[in-house]
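Exercise 7.
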Amino acid sequence: MDKNSFIGLVLIGLILFGFTWYQSRQYNKQMEIQAQLDSVARVEALQRAALDSAAALTALPDSVAAEGQAPQASIYKDSLLELSHNAAAEYLTLENGKIAVTFTTQGAQPYSVLIKEYKTYGQDDLYLIKPGAGNYSFRVYAGEYINTSDFVFSVVEKTNSSVVMRLPFAQGGYIEQKYELREDSYSVDNLLSFVGMQGVIPRNVSSFDLDFSVTVPRMEKGYRNESQYSKIDYYFEGDKKPEEVGRGRNGSRRIDSKLSWFAFQQQFFSAILRAPEQFASGQLSVNFIPEGDESHDLMACAADMRCEFQPGSEVSVPFEFYFGPNHFQTLKSYDLKYEKIIPLGGWLVGWFTRFVIIPLFNFLHRYIGNFGIIILLMTIIIKIAVMPLTNKSYMSSAKMSALKPEMEKLNEKYPKQEDAMKKQQATMELYKKAGISPAGGCLPTLLTFPILWAMFRFFPASIELRQQPFLWCQDLSAYDSIVDYGTKIPILGDHLSLFALLMAVTMWLYSKMTIGNQPAGNDPNAQSMRFMSLWMMPIMMFFICNNLSAALSYYYLLSNLFMMLQNWILRKFFVKPEEIRAKIKAAENKPAPKSKWQQRLEEAQRIQQAQLKEQQKKQRR
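Solution. The predicted structure, written as C-alpha coordinates, is:
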Protein backbone atom coordinates (compact mmCIF):
# COMPACT_ATOMS: atom_id res chain seq x y z
CA MET A 1 0.00 0.00 0.00
CA ASP A 2 1.48 3.45 -0.99
CA LYS A 3 1.62 6.52 1.27
CA ASN A 4 -1.37 8.33 -0.30
CA SER A 5 -3.65 5.30 0.11
CA PHE A 6 -2.64 4.93 3.76
CA ILE A 7 -3.36 8.61 4.49
CA GLY A 8 -6.76 8.33 2.73
CA LEU A 9 -7.81 5.34 4.82
CA VAL A 10 -6.79 7.12 8.03
CA LEU A 11 -8.81 10.21 7.09
CA ILE A 12 -11.88 8.10 6.27
CA GLY A 13 -11.54 6.34 9.61
CA LEU A 14 -11.29 9.64 11.48
CA ILE A 15 -14.37 10.98 9.68
CA LEU A 16 -16.40 7.89 10.53
CA PHE A 17 -15.24 7.98 14.15
CA GLY A 18 -16.14 11.65 14.48
CA PHE A 19 -19.58 11.16 12.90
CA THR A 20 -20.32 8.22 15.19
CA TRP A 21 -19.20 10.17 18.29
CA TYR A 22 -21.38 13.14 17.30
CA GLN A 23 -24.45 10.96 16.69
CA SER A 24 -23.95 9.18 20.01
CA ARG A 25 -23.72 12.50 21.86
CA GLN A 26 -26.92 13.77 20.25
CA TYR A 27 -28.71 10.53 21.04
CA ASN A 28 -27.65 10.70 24.70
CA LYS A 29 -28.95 14.25 24.97
CA GLN A 30 -32.29 13.21 23.51
CA MET A 31 -32.48 10.26 25.92
CA GLU A 32 -31.73 12.55 28.86
CA ILE A 33 -34.51 14.92 27.85
CA GLN A 34 -36.93 12.01 27.33
CA ALA A 35 -35.90 10.54 30.71
CA GLN A 36 -36.64 13.85 32.37
CA LEU A 37 -40.06 14.02 30.74
CA ASP A 38 -40.81 10.40 31.70
CA SER A 39 -39.63 11.09 35.25
CA VAL A 40 -41.93 14.07 35.56
CA ALA A 41 -44.82 12.02 34.20
CA ARG A 42 -44.13 9.17 36.64
CA VAL A 43 -43.90 11.57 39.58
CA GLU A 44 -47.22 13.12 38.60
CA ALA A 45 -48.76 9.67 38.27
CA LEU A 46 -47.42 8.63 41.65
CA GLN A 47 -48.69 11.86 43.21
CA ARG A 48 -52.17 11.23 41.79
CA ALA A 49 -52.05 7.64 43.01
CA ALA A 50 -50.90 8.79 46.46
CA LEU A 51 -53.74 11.31 46.65
CA ASP A 52 -56.22 8.61 45.61
CA SER A 53 -54.81 6.22 48.21
CA ALA A 54 -54.98 8.90 50.90
CA ALA A 55 -58.57 9.64 50.00
CA ALA A 56 -59.40 5.95 50.15
CA LEU A 57 -57.68 5.63 53.51
CA THR A 58 -59.60 8.63 54.83
CA ALA A 59 -62.82 6.95 53.78
CA LEU A 60 -62.04 3.84 55.83
CA PRO A 61 -63.73 3.37 59.21
CA ASP A 62 -61.83 4.77 62.16
CA SER A 63 -61.49 1.31 63.69
CA VAL A 64 -59.58 0.09 60.63
CA ALA A 65 -57.37 3.17 60.44
CA ALA A 66 -56.66 2.97 64.17
CA GLU A 67 -55.34 -0.53 63.84
CA GLY A 68 -52.39 0.89 61.94
CA GLN A 69 -52.17 -2.12 59.66
CA ALA A 70 -48.91 -2.33 57.73
CA PRO A 71 -49.20 -1.98 53.92
CA GLN A 72 -49.09 -5.18 51.93
CA ALA A 73 -45.78 -6.23 50.36
CA SER A 74 -45.34 -5.31 46.70
CA ILE A 75 -45.86 -8.06 44.15
CA TYR A 76 -44.06 -6.37 41.27
CA LYS A 77 -40.69 -4.64 41.14
CA ASP A 78 -42.11 -1.88 38.97
CA SER A 79 -43.97 0.67 41.14
CA LEU A 80 -46.36 1.68 38.36
CA LEU A 81 -47.22 -1.97 37.68
CA GLU A 82 -47.95 -2.36 41.39
CA LEU A 83 -50.33 0.61 41.27
CA SER A 84 -52.02 -0.75 38.14
CA HIS A 85 -52.39 -4.16 39.74
CA ASN A 86 -54.34 -2.67 42.65
CA ALA A 87 -56.47 -0.21 40.67
CA ALA A 88 -60.21 -0.60 40.02
CA ALA A 89 -61.44 -1.63 36.57
CA GLU A 90 -63.70 0.39 34.28
CA TYR A 91 -65.99 -0.73 31.45
CA LEU A 92 -66.45 0.86 28.02
CA THR A 93 -68.70 -0.19 25.13
CA LEU A 94 -68.30 0.11 21.37
CA GLU A 95 -71.32 -0.75 19.26
CA ASN A 96 -72.76 -0.52 15.79
CA GLY A 97 -75.92 -1.93 14.22
CA LYS A 98 -74.68 -5.52 14.42
CA ILE A 99 -72.71 -6.04 17.64
CA ALA A 100 -71.96 -4.39 20.98
CA VAL A 101 -68.54 -5.12 22.48
CA THR A 102 -67.92 -4.14 26.09
CA PHE A 103 -64.27 -3.76 27.12
CA THR A 104 -62.76 -3.80 30.57
CA THR A 105 -59.64 -1.87 31.55
CA GLN A 106 -58.66 -4.98 33.55
CA GLY A 107 -56.25 -6.34 30.99
CA ALA A 108 -57.58 -4.00 28.26
CA GLN A 109 -59.66 -6.81 26.78
CA PRO A 110 -63.17 -7.63 25.55
CA TYR A 111 -65.48 -8.27 28.49
CA SER A 112 -68.62 -9.31 26.58
CA VAL A 113 -69.87 -9.54 23.00
CA LEU A 114 -73.56 -9.12 22.16
CA ILE A 115 -74.87 -10.10 18.69
CA LYS A 116 -77.74 -7.67 18.19
CA GLU A 117 -79.65 -9.19 15.28
CA TYR A 118 -80.16 -12.60 16.90
CA LYS A 119 -81.70 -14.14 20.01
CA THR A 120 -81.15 -17.42 21.82
CA TYR A 121 -83.72 -20.19 21.49
CA GLY A 122 -85.25 -18.91 24.75
CA GLN A 123 -85.48 -15.40 23.21
CA ASP A 124 -82.79 -13.95 25.48
CA ASP A 125 -80.09 -11.57 24.29
CA LEU A 126 -77.49 -13.55 22.37
CA TYR A 127 -74.08 -13.14 23.97
CA LEU A 128 -71.31 -14.87 22.04
CA ILE A 129 -69.13 -13.98 25.03
CA LYS A 130 -71.10 -13.59 28.23
CA PRO A 131 -69.91 -10.86 30.67
CA GLY A 132 -66.67 -12.06 32.21
CA ALA A 133 -66.74 -15.42 30.39
CA GLY A 134 -63.65 -14.74 28.29
CA ASN A 135 -59.99 -13.85 28.65
CA TYR A 136 -57.74 -12.07 26.15
CA SER A 137 -54.29 -11.35 27.50
CA PHE A 138 -50.58 -11.23 26.69
CA ARG A 139 -47.59 -12.57 28.55
CA VAL A 140 -44.17 -11.01 28.01
CA TYR A 141 -40.87 -10.67 29.87
CA ALA A 142 -40.27 -7.03 30.79
CA GLY A 143 -37.68 -7.30 33.54
CA GLU A 144 -40.15 -9.70 35.14
CA TYR A 145 -42.82 -11.91 33.62
CA ILE A 146 -46.10 -10.06 33.37
CA ASN A 147 -49.59 -10.98 32.22
CA THR A 148 -51.66 -8.03 30.98
CA SER A 149 -54.82 -9.45 32.53
CA ASP A 150 -53.32 -8.77 35.98
CA PHE A 151 -53.26 -5.01 35.45
CA VAL A 152 -55.74 -2.19 35.01
CA PHE A 153 -54.93 -0.07 31.96
CA SER A 154 -55.69 3.63 31.81
CA VAL A 155 -58.03 4.96 29.11
CA VAL A 156 -56.27 7.62 27.03
CA GLU A 157 -58.76 7.93 24.16
CA LYS A 158 -62.39 6.98 23.56
CA THR A 159 -64.54 7.67 20.49
CA ASN A 160 -67.76 6.16 19.16
CA SER A 161 -65.80 3.54 17.24
CA SER A 162 -62.47 3.14 19.06
CA VAL A 163 -60.82 2.99 22.46
CA VAL A 164 -57.14 3.23 23.44
CA MET A 165 -55.80 1.93 26.78
CA ARG A 166 -52.24 2.00 28.16
CA LEU A 167 -50.17 0.28 30.84
CA PRO A 168 -47.16 2.49 31.85
CA PHE A 169 -43.85 1.29 33.28
CA ALA A 170 -41.72 3.15 35.84
CA GLN A 171 -38.59 2.57 33.76
CA GLY A 172 -40.20 4.26 30.79
CA GLY A 173 -42.52 3.23 27.99
CA TYR A 174 -45.93 1.58 27.98
CA ILE A 175 -48.02 -1.20 26.48
CA GLU A 176 -50.94 0.09 24.45
CA GLN A 177 -54.10 -1.67 23.33
CA LYS A 178 -56.22 -0.04 20.64
CA TYR A 179 -59.58 -1.48 19.54
CA GLU A 180 -61.56 -0.17 16.59
CA LEU A 181 -65.04 -1.40 15.66
CA ARG A 182 -65.69 -1.29 11.94
CA GLU A 183 -68.89 0.40 10.78
CA ASP A 184 -71.82 -1.96 10.12
CA SER A 185 -69.53 -4.95 10.57
CA TYR A 186 -68.87 -7.91 12.85
CA SER A 187 -65.14 -7.10 12.89
CA VAL A 188 -63.00 -5.49 15.56
CA ASP A 189 -59.42 -4.44 14.77
CA ASN A 190 -56.91 -4.73 17.60
CA LEU A 191 -53.45 -3.12 17.59
CA LEU A 192 -51.04 -4.16 20.35
CA SER A 193 -48.10 -1.74 20.73
CA PHE A 194 -44.93 -1.69 22.83
CA VAL A 195 -43.85 1.96 22.94
CA GLY A 196 -40.54 3.10 24.45
CA MET A 197 -39.99 -0.37 25.92
CA GLN A 198 -36.42 -0.85 24.66
CA GLY A 199 -35.14 -0.18 28.19
CA VAL A 200 -37.65 -2.57 29.75
CA ILE A 201 -37.88 -5.54 27.39
CA PRO A 202 -34.43 -7.12 26.88
CA ARG A 203 -33.11 -7.21 23.33
CA ASN A 204 -32.93 -10.99 23.32
CA VAL A 205 -36.71 -11.22 23.90
CA SER A 206 -38.29 -11.68 20.47
CA SER A 207 -41.67 -13.21 21.27
CA PHE A 208 -44.68 -12.96 23.54
CA ASP A 209 -47.61 -15.26 24.31
CA LEU A 210 -51.26 -14.56 23.56
CA ASP A 211 -53.98 -16.23 25.60
CA PHE A 212 -57.55 -16.21 24.31
CA SER A 213 -60.22 -18.30 26.00
CA VAL A 214 -64.01 -18.22 25.85
CA THR A 215 -66.71 -20.25 27.57
CA VAL A 216 -69.33 -20.39 24.82
CA PRO A 217 -72.93 -20.54 26.10
CA ARG A 218 -75.67 -22.75 24.71
CA MET A 219 -77.90 -20.89 22.28
CA GLU A 220 -79.97 -23.53 20.47
CA LYS A 221 -82.80 -25.94 21.28
CA GLY A 222 -81.03 -29.30 21.13
CA TYR A 223 -77.73 -29.88 22.91
CA ARG A 224 -76.79 -32.88 20.77
CA ASN A 225 -77.32 -31.08 17.46
CA GLU A 226 -75.63 -27.90 18.70
CA SER A 227 -72.56 -29.68 20.05
CA GLN A 228 -72.23 -31.87 16.96
CA TYR A 229 -71.71 -28.77 14.81
CA SER A 230 -69.46 -26.91 17.28
CA LYS A 231 -65.66 -27.08 17.22
CA ILE A 232 -62.37 -25.17 16.89
CA ASP A 233 -60.99 -24.41 13.44
CA TYR A 234 -57.51 -23.23 12.52
CA TYR A 235 -56.10 -22.18 9.17
CA PHE A 236 -52.63 -22.24 7.60
CA GLU A 237 -51.94 -19.52 5.05
CA GLY A 238 -52.31 -20.87 1.50
CA ASP A 239 -54.32 -24.00 2.40
CA LYS A 240 -57.63 -24.73 0.70
CA LYS A 241 -59.55 -25.13 3.94
CA PRO A 242 -58.98 -25.00 7.71
CA GLU A 243 -58.28 -27.94 10.00
CA GLU A 244 -60.55 -28.67 12.95
CA VAL A 245 -60.48 -29.89 16.55
CA GLY A 246 -63.43 -31.24 18.51
CA ARG A 247 -66.76 -31.42 16.68
CA GLY A 248 -68.88 -32.51 19.61
CA ARG A 249 -66.08 -34.05 21.64
CA ASN A 250 -63.18 -32.84 23.77
CA GLY A 251 -59.92 -32.35 21.95
CA SER A 252 -56.64 -30.46 21.81
CA ARG A 253 -53.99 -29.82 19.19
CA ARG A 254 -50.38 -28.65 19.39
CA ILE A 255 -49.35 -26.59 16.35
CA ASP A 256 -45.64 -26.07 15.74
CA SER A 257 -45.82 -24.05 12.54
CA LYS A 258 -47.16 -20.65 11.55
CA LEU A 259 -50.92 -20.27 11.19
CA SER A 260 -53.11 -17.40 10.08
CA TRP A 261 -56.26 -17.64 12.23
CA PHE A 262 -58.37 -19.81 14.47
CA ALA A 263 -62.09 -19.87 15.28
CA PHE A 264 -64.12 -20.85 18.32
CA GLN A 265 -67.13 -22.09 16.36
CA GLN A 266 -70.57 -22.69 17.80
CA GLN A 267 -73.17 -24.21 15.45
CA PHE A 268 -74.26 -20.82 14.08
CA PHE A 269 -71.84 -18.23 15.56
CA SER A 270 -68.08 -17.88 15.80
CA ALA A 271 -65.35 -15.89 17.51
CA ILE A 272 -62.43 -15.74 15.07
CA LEU A 273 -59.01 -14.26 15.84
CA ARG A 274 -56.64 -13.56 12.97
CA ALA A 275 -53.00 -12.45 13.05
CA PRO A 276 -52.10 -10.70 9.76
CA GLU A 277 -48.42 -11.32 10.60
CA GLN A 278 -49.33 -14.92 11.58
CA PHE A 279 -48.97 -16.79 14.85
CA ALA A 280 -45.64 -18.57 15.25
CA SER A 281 -47.12 -21.64 16.98
CA GLY A 282 -49.78 -22.51 19.50
CA GLN A 283 -51.92 -24.88 21.50
CA LEU A 284 -55.70 -25.17 20.95
CA SER A 285 -58.17 -27.03 23.14
CA VAL A 286 -61.93 -27.46 23.50
CA ASN A 287 -63.86 -29.12 26.33
CA PHE A 288 -67.59 -29.67 26.05
CA ILE A 289 -69.67 -29.05 29.14
CA PRO A 290 -72.22 -31.77 30.07
CA GLU A 291 -75.79 -31.14 28.96
CA GLY A 292 -77.18 -31.10 32.48
CA ASP A 293 -74.68 -28.57 33.85
CA GLU A 294 -76.34 -25.68 35.69
CA SER A 295 -74.22 -23.09 33.87
CA HIS A 296 -76.09 -23.84 30.62
CA ASP A 297 -72.77 -23.44 28.79
CA LEU A 298 -71.77 -25.41 25.71
CA MET A 299 -67.98 -25.57 25.59
CA ALA A 300 -64.79 -24.03 26.95
CA CYS A 301 -62.37 -23.04 24.19
CA ALA A 302 -58.78 -21.96 24.77
CA ALA A 303 -55.86 -20.85 22.59
CA ASP A 304 -52.30 -20.31 23.81
CA MET A 305 -50.42 -18.75 20.90
CA ARG A 306 -46.80 -17.68 20.46
CA CYS A 307 -46.24 -14.41 18.57
CA GLU A 308 -42.94 -13.09 17.28
CA PHE A 309 -41.81 -9.44 17.15
CA GLN A 310 -38.67 -7.36 16.69
CA PRO A 311 -37.74 -5.36 19.81
CA GLY A 312 -37.43 -1.61 19.30
CA SER A 313 -38.56 1.82 20.44
CA GLU A 314 -42.04 1.28 19.01
CA VAL A 315 -43.41 -2.11 17.99
CA SER A 316 -46.99 -2.69 16.81
CA VAL A 317 -48.59 -6.10 16.23
CA PRO A 318 -52.05 -6.15 14.57
CA PHE A 319 -54.87 -8.62 15.25
CA GLU A 320 -58.41 -8.91 13.88
CA PHE A 321 -61.53 -10.26 15.58
CA TYR A 322 -64.70 -11.56 13.96
CA PHE A 323 -67.68 -11.87 16.31
CA GLY A 324 -70.70 -12.92 14.28
CA PRO A 325 -72.88 -15.49 12.52
CA ASN A 326 -71.66 -18.41 10.42
CA HIS A 327 -73.41 -16.99 7.38
CA PHE A 328 -71.76 -18.23 4.20
CA GLN A 329 -71.89 -15.01 2.17
CA THR A 330 -70.87 -12.84 5.14
CA LEU A 331 -67.84 -15.00 5.93
CA LYS A 332 -66.91 -15.30 2.25
CA SER A 333 -66.88 -11.49 1.88
CA TYR A 334 -63.69 -11.34 4.02
CA ASP A 335 -61.82 -13.42 1.41
CA LEU A 336 -59.86 -15.15 4.17
CA LYS A 337 -61.39 -18.67 3.90
CA TYR A 338 -63.62 -17.97 6.91
CA GLU A 339 -66.58 -19.53 5.07
CA LYS A 340 -64.74 -22.87 5.04
CA ILE A 341 -65.63 -23.40 8.70
CA ILE A 342 -69.22 -24.15 7.65
CA PRO A 343 -69.40 -27.97 7.23
CA LEU A 344 -70.60 -28.42 3.66
CA GLY A 345 -68.96 -31.79 2.96
CA GLY A 346 -65.95 -32.95 0.95
CA TRP A 347 -64.75 -31.58 -2.36
CA LEU A 348 -67.56 -33.10 -4.49
CA VAL A 349 -70.41 -32.56 -2.03
CA GLY A 350 -69.01 -29.18 -0.97
CA TRP A 351 -68.70 -28.08 -4.60
CA PHE A 352 -72.33 -29.02 -5.30
CA THR A 353 -73.50 -27.23 -2.14
CA ARG A 354 -71.55 -24.01 -2.81
CA PHE A 355 -72.38 -23.70 -6.51
CA VAL A 356 -75.86 -25.25 -6.72
CA ILE A 357 -77.65 -25.57 -3.37
CA ILE A 358 -76.68 -22.22 -1.82
CA PRO A 359 -77.28 -20.11 -4.98
CA LEU A 360 -80.65 -21.83 -5.52
CA PHE A 361 -81.58 -21.32 -1.86
CA ASN A 362 -80.61 -17.62 -1.98
CA PHE A 363 -82.44 -17.08 -5.27
CA LEU A 364 -85.70 -18.50 -3.92
CA HIS A 365 -85.29 -16.54 -0.68
CA ARG A 366 -85.31 -13.27 -2.65
CA TYR A 367 -88.94 -13.82 -3.58
CA ILE A 368 -90.28 -16.17 -0.88
CA GLY A 369 -90.16 -15.58 2.85
CA ASN A 370 -91.51 -18.94 4.04
CA PHE A 371 -88.61 -21.38 4.30
CA GLY A 372 -90.90 -24.42 4.30
CA ILE A 373 -92.10 -23.41 0.82
CA ILE A 374 -88.50 -22.75 -0.24
CA ILE A 375 -87.48 -26.29 0.77
CA LEU A 376 -90.50 -27.70 -1.10
CA LEU A 377 -89.55 -25.84 -4.29
CA MET A 378 -85.90 -26.83 -3.92
CA THR A 379 -86.91 -30.47 -3.61
CA ILE A 380 -89.06 -30.31 -6.76
CA ILE A 381 -86.37 -28.51 -8.77
CA ILE A 382 -83.62 -30.92 -7.73
CA LYS A 383 -85.77 -34.00 -8.35
CA ILE A 384 -86.72 -32.78 -11.81
CA ALA A 385 -83.06 -32.02 -12.56
CA VAL A 386 -81.93 -35.56 -11.67
CA MET A 387 -84.95 -37.24 -13.22
CA PRO A 388 -82.99 -38.43 -16.30
CA LEU A 389 -80.70 -40.33 -13.92
CA THR A 390 -83.41 -41.80 -11.71
CA ASN A 391 -85.88 -42.70 -14.47
CA LYS A 392 -83.69 -45.52 -15.72
CA SER A 393 -83.49 -47.02 -12.23
CA TYR A 394 -87.25 -46.69 -11.66
CA MET A 395 -88.02 -48.17 -15.08
CA SER A 396 -85.77 -51.13 -14.32
CA SER A 397 -87.51 -51.65 -10.97
CA ALA A 398 -90.96 -51.39 -12.58
CA LYS A 399 -90.06 -53.91 -15.29
CA MET A 400 -88.74 -56.32 -12.69
CA SER A 401 -92.07 -56.06 -10.86
CA ALA A 402 -93.83 -56.88 -14.13
CA LEU A 403 -91.84 -60.12 -14.32
CA LYS A 404 -93.23 -61.41 -11.05
CA PRO A 405 -95.11 -64.40 -12.66
CA GLU A 406 -91.97 -65.48 -14.56
CA MET A 407 -89.81 -65.14 -11.45
CA GLU A 408 -92.24 -67.31 -9.48
CA LYS A 409 -91.91 -70.00 -12.17
CA LEU A 410 -88.14 -69.93 -11.75
CA ASN A 411 -88.53 -70.28 -7.99
CA GLU A 412 -90.67 -73.38 -8.54
CA LYS A 413 -88.19 -74.76 -11.09
CA TYR A 414 -85.15 -74.27 -8.84
CA PRO A 415 -86.39 -74.71 -5.25
CA LYS A 416 -83.13 -76.14 -3.83
CA GLN A 417 -80.27 -74.08 -2.46
CA GLU A 418 -77.69 -76.01 -4.50
CA ASP A 419 -79.49 -74.83 -7.66
CA ALA A 420 -78.81 -71.18 -6.83
CA MET A 421 -76.30 -70.83 -9.66
CA LYS A 422 -78.70 -72.24 -12.24
CA LYS A 423 -81.46 -70.00 -10.93
CA GLN A 424 -79.22 -66.96 -11.16
CA GLN A 425 -78.26 -67.81 -14.74
CA ALA A 426 -81.93 -68.28 -15.68
CA THR A 427 -82.81 -64.97 -14.01
CA MET A 428 -80.12 -63.14 -15.96
CA GLU A 429 -81.35 -64.75 -19.17
CA LEU A 430 -84.89 -63.61 -18.36
CA TYR A 431 -83.71 -60.06 -17.71
CA LYS A 432 -81.80 -60.12 -20.99
CA LYS A 433 -84.88 -61.12 -22.97
CA ALA A 434 -86.97 -58.45 -21.26
CA GLY A 435 -84.36 -55.77 -21.92
CA ILE A 436 -83.64 -55.17 -18.22
CA SER A 437 -80.19 -54.23 -16.94
CA PRO A 438 -80.10 -54.44 -13.12
CA ALA A 439 -76.61 -52.93 -12.92
CA GLY A 440 -77.56 -50.15 -15.29
CA GLY A 441 -80.40 -49.15 -12.99
CA CYS A 442 -78.17 -48.97 -9.90
CA LEU A 443 -75.48 -46.67 -11.28
CA PRO A 444 -77.73 -43.63 -11.94
CA THR A 445 -79.13 -43.95 -8.41
CA LEU A 446 -75.61 -43.95 -6.96
CA LEU A 447 -74.91 -40.70 -8.80
CA THR A 448 -77.69 -39.00 -6.80
CA PHE A 449 -76.13 -39.87 -3.42
CA PRO A 450 -73.88 -36.76 -3.35
CA ILE A 451 -77.05 -34.66 -3.57
CA LEU A 452 -78.60 -36.45 -0.58
CA TRP A 453 -75.39 -35.99 1.39
CA ALA A 454 -75.17 -32.32 0.38
CA MET A 455 -78.62 -31.76 1.84
CA PHE A 456 -77.66 -33.69 4.95
CA ARG A 457 -74.79 -31.24 5.52
CA PHE A 458 -76.53 -28.04 4.32
CA PHE A 459 -79.73 -27.86 6.38
CA PRO A 460 -78.31 -28.30 9.92
CA ALA A 461 -75.56 -25.74 9.16
CA SER A 462 -77.77 -23.12 7.48
CA ILE A 463 -78.24 -20.15 9.80
CA GLU A 464 -81.05 -18.85 7.55
CA LEU A 465 -83.27 -21.64 8.92
CA ARG A 466 -82.49 -20.78 12.53
CA GLN A 467 -85.70 -20.06 14.50
CA GLN A 468 -87.79 -20.10 11.30
CA PRO A 469 -91.24 -21.68 11.93
CA PHE A 470 -93.16 -23.93 9.56
CA LEU A 471 -96.43 -25.72 10.31
CA TRP A 472 -96.08 -27.22 13.82
CA CYS A 473 -92.30 -26.71 13.86
CA GLN A 474 -91.01 -23.58 15.63
CA ASP A 475 -87.39 -23.86 14.49
CA LEU A 476 -86.42 -25.58 11.25
CA SER A 477 -82.76 -25.69 12.30
CA ALA A 478 -83.63 -27.86 15.34
CA TYR A 479 -85.80 -30.92 15.86
CA ASP A 480 -89.59 -30.54 16.00
CA SER A 481 -90.92 -32.16 19.16
CA ILE A 482 -94.62 -33.05 19.29
CA VAL A 483 -94.10 -35.23 22.37
CA ASP A 484 -91.63 -34.47 25.17
CA TYR A 485 -91.05 -37.38 27.53
CA GLY A 486 -89.24 -35.39 30.22
CA THR A 487 -86.64 -38.16 30.50
CA LYS A 488 -83.96 -39.40 28.14
CA ILE A 489 -84.41 -42.68 26.31
CA PRO A 490 -81.18 -44.19 24.92
CA ILE A 491 -80.64 -43.34 21.22
CA LEU A 492 -84.13 -41.85 20.89
CA GLY A 493 -83.70 -38.87 23.26
CA ASP A 494 -86.35 -37.11 25.31
CA HIS A 495 -88.80 -36.25 22.52
CA LEU A 496 -90.56 -37.45 19.38
CA SER A 497 -90.08 -35.59 16.09
CA LEU A 498 -93.12 -35.68 13.81
CA PHE A 499 -91.15 -34.81 10.66
CA ALA A 500 -88.72 -37.65 11.41
CA LEU A 501 -91.61 -40.06 12.01
CA LEU A 502 -93.36 -39.08 8.76
CA MET A 503 -90.08 -39.38 6.90
CA ALA A 504 -89.60 -42.94 8.20
CA VAL A 505 -93.18 -43.91 7.29
CA THR A 506 -92.83 -42.62 3.71
CA MET A 507 -89.48 -44.44 3.42
CA TRP A 508 -91.23 -47.67 4.45
CA LEU A 509 -94.04 -47.05 1.96
CA TYR A 510 -91.56 -46.36 -0.85
CA SER A 511 -89.63 -49.55 -0.05
CA LYS A 512 -92.91 -51.47 0.04
CA MET A 513 -93.82 -50.05 -3.36
CA THR A 514 -90.51 -50.89 -5.01
CA ILE A 515 -89.84 -54.38 -3.60
CA GLY A 516 -93.29 -55.48 -2.43
CA ASN A 517 -94.29 -56.72 -5.88
CA GLN A 518 -91.01 -58.54 -6.42
CA PRO A 519 -90.85 -62.22 -5.43
CA ALA A 520 -88.40 -62.87 -2.61
CA GLY A 521 -87.73 -66.44 -3.73
CA ASN A 522 -85.77 -68.82 -1.54
CA ASP A 523 -82.51 -66.86 -1.50
CA PRO A 524 -81.61 -65.95 2.13
CA ASN A 525 -79.49 -63.01 0.94
CA ALA A 526 -82.39 -61.55 -1.02
CA GLN A 527 -84.72 -61.96 1.96
CA SER A 528 -82.16 -60.25 4.20
CA MET A 529 -81.89 -57.33 1.75
CA ARG A 530 -85.68 -57.00 1.67
CA PHE A 531 -85.79 -56.87 5.46
CA MET A 532 -83.05 -54.21 5.54
CA SER A 533 -84.78 -52.03 2.95
CA LEU A 534 -88.28 -52.43 4.30
CA TRP A 535 -87.68 -52.23 8.05
CA MET A 536 -84.14 -51.55 9.19
CA MET A 537 -83.43 -48.49 7.03
CA PRO A 538 -86.62 -46.59 7.95
CA ILE A 539 -86.11 -47.34 11.64
CA MET A 540 -82.44 -46.33 11.55
CA MET A 541 -83.21 -43.10 9.68
CA PHE A 542 -85.90 -42.25 12.22
CA PHE A 543 -83.50 -42.60 15.15
CA ILE A 544 -80.88 -40.53 13.30
CA CYS A 545 -83.19 -37.73 12.23
CA ASN A 546 -85.18 -37.55 15.46
CA ASN A 547 -82.46 -35.33 16.98
CA LEU A 548 -81.39 -33.47 13.83
CA SER A 549 -82.72 -30.45 11.97
CA ALA A 550 -86.44 -30.56 11.18
CA ALA A 551 -85.62 -29.06 7.77
CA LEU A 552 -83.56 -32.16 6.98
CA SER A 553 -86.36 -34.58 7.93
CA TYR A 554 -88.82 -32.41 6.02
CA TYR A 555 -86.65 -32.53 2.90
CA TYR A 556 -86.31 -36.34 3.09
CA LEU A 557 -90.08 -36.59 3.58
CA LEU A 558 -90.71 -34.53 0.44
CA SER A 559 -88.07 -36.48 -1.44
CA ASN A 560 -89.73 -39.81 -0.57
CA LEU A 561 -93.17 -38.51 -1.62
CA PHE A 562 -91.77 -37.26 -4.92
CA MET A 563 -90.07 -40.61 -5.64
CA MET A 564 -93.29 -42.48 -4.83
CA LEU A 565 -95.20 -40.25 -7.24
CA GLN A 566 -92.56 -40.64 -9.93
CA ASN A 567 -92.52 -44.42 -9.53
CA TRP A 568 -96.32 -44.62 -9.66
CA ILE A 569 -96.49 -42.54 -12.87
CA LEU A 570 -93.87 -44.71 -14.58
CA ARG A 571 -95.67 -47.93 -13.66
CA LYS A 572 -99.09 -46.56 -14.50
CA PHE A 573 -98.38 -44.95 -17.86
CA PHE A 574 -95.02 -46.13 -19.19
CA VAL A 575 -94.51 -49.77 -18.16
CA LYS A 576 -96.84 -52.29 -19.79
CA PRO A 577 -96.45 -55.79 -18.25
CA GLU A 578 -98.22 -57.39 -21.22
CA GLU A 579 -95.70 -55.93 -23.66
CA ILE A 580 -92.77 -57.14 -21.55
CA ARG A 581 -94.16 -60.67 -21.33
CA ALA A 582 -94.86 -60.68 -25.07
CA LYS A 583 -91.28 -59.61 -25.70
CA ILE A 584 -90.02 -62.48 -23.56
CA LYS A 585 -92.26 -65.00 -25.34
CA ALA A 586 -91.10 -63.80 -28.75
CA ALA A 587 -87.48 -64.24 -27.70
CA GLU A 588 -87.95 -67.75 -26.22
CA ASN A 589 -86.74 -69.60 -29.33
CA LYS A 590 -84.08 -67.07 -30.21
CA PRO A 591 -80.63 -67.21 -28.63
CA ALA A 592 -80.03 -63.92 -26.87
CA PRO A 593 -76.71 -62.25 -27.74
CA LYS A 594 -74.32 -62.30 -24.84
CA SER A 595 -72.20 -59.34 -23.92
CA LYS A 596 -68.56 -59.71 -22.89
CA TRP A 597 -69.53 -58.91 -19.32
CA GLN A 598 -72.19 -61.65 -19.32
CA GLN A 599 -69.74 -64.11 -20.86
CA ARG A 600 -67.20 -63.39 -18.12
CA LEU A 601 -69.92 -63.72 -15.48
CA GLU A 602 -71.02 -67.11 -16.83
CA GLU A 603 -67.42 -68.29 -16.98
CA ALA A 604 -66.93 -67.29 -13.33
CA GLN A 605 -70.13 -69.10 -12.40
CA ARG A 606 -68.96 -72.29 -14.19
CA ILE A 607 -65.64 -72.17 -12.35
CA GLN A 608 -67.44 -71.65 -9.05
CA GLN A 609 -69.76 -74.59 -9.76
CA ALA A 610 -66.83 -76.84 -10.61
CA GLN A 611 -65.06 -75.89 -7.38
CA LEU A 612 -68.24 -76.58 -5.41
CA LYS A 613 -68.59 -80.04 -6.96
CA GLU A 614 -64.94 -80.80 -6.24
CA GLN A 615 -65.41 -79.85 -2.58
CA GLN A 616 -68.51 -82.08 -2.34
CA LYS A 617 -66.52 -85.06 -3.75
CA LYS A 618 -63.76 -84.55 -1.18
CA GLN A 619 -66.30 -84.41 1.64
CA ARG A 620 -67.85 -87.73 0.50
CA ARG A 621 -64.46 -89.43 0.56
